[in-house]
Design a protein that fits this description.
The protein is α/β, with parallel strands linked by helices and about 250 residues long. It is built from 7 helices and 11 strands. α5 (about 165-170) links the parallel β7 and β8. About 45% of the residues are buried.
């Protein structure tokens, strides 16, 4: 039997320098529960290091998936969502494996914000010294290909935005582009969303909060999916429309 689940695959924590310090483990979990969100993916910039804290705090409610918002060499953002932390950590190792791929530019908290790795109670484990909001040394096609080869879902992030999106940097993507889905921002209206669907009729679209603060977490900012269970595998089936699983069009 298929049931509706509310899914948000783009949630930042205090590790992202652009994220508010309020984005700690207890706070994110409580906000997601109050909003009635069933599944979230922790998708900080170029790192999955705060996934363990959020997952341990949630204890399965909501279900927490590990993700990374990759910034490619062209400054395009791509969401990478994985079934477990082992897959995410292996991909992150590939992402960071040489300084040529993750440049050693140091973070300046006064300019970019703090990059805090936390435990489930918001205890500070360490501060990430390497600036996370910078392009890695891989182009977007290579990143998408590696995400999928690593067992993850590759989602083109906020494609409606005038910066850090595939269309804003490279123009229209091919109709058969091998991403698993494209993400639209919750801030656009239904008419604008429909234009994107008409432009790319073969693409699966989701809506995500891209939450950098707690107030952004809510059902109106994410996507309803019809799944048998709140799992990564079921989400994969929904994005490809297999076995009756499906993504409900977020704009009605």
């Amino acid at each position: 039997m298929l049931n509706p689940y509310w899914v948000d695959l783009h949630v930042h924590t205090a590790l992202s320098p652009c994220g508010e310090l309020e984005m700690g483990a207890p706070e994110i979990v409580d906000a997601a529960r109050k909003a009635g969100i069933d599944i979230i993916a922790i998708s900080d910039h170029n790192s999955a290091d705060n996934f363990p804290a959020i997952s341990e705090r949630a204890e399965g409610c909501p279900v927490v998936l590990p993700g990374i918002e990759v910034q490619t060499a062209e400054d395009i953002h791509v969401l990478a969502v994985f079934p477990d932390y082992a897959h995410a950590a292996a991909f992150q190792e590939w992402l960071w494996k040489r300084w040529a791929k993750m440049p050693p530019t140091s973070n300046d908290p006064d300019i970019f914000g703090y990059q805090t790795v936390i435990d489930k109670d918001d205890g500070i484990l360490r501060m990430e010294d390497v600036l996370l909001v910078q392009g890695v040394g891989y182009d977007v096609d290579t990143v998408v290909r590696e995400i999928r080869a690593s067992g993850g879902l590759a989602i083109l992030a906020h494609i409606d935005r005038p910066s850090f999106s595939y269309p804003s940097v490279l123009g229209p993507f091919p109709a058969d582009y091998p991403a698993d889905a494209s993400e639209l921002s919750w801030r656009i209206d239904s008419a604008q969303a429909a234009e994107w669907r008409e432009r790319y009729p073969q693409m699966t679209f989701i809506r995500s909060s891209d939450a950098h603060m707690l107030d952004a977490l809510g059902r109106g900012h994410c996507t309803k999916m019809y799944l048998e269970a709140p799992t990564f595998g079921e989400i994969r089936l929904a994005l490809s429309g297999e076995g009756g699983r499906r993504v409900s069009w977020p704009w009605g």
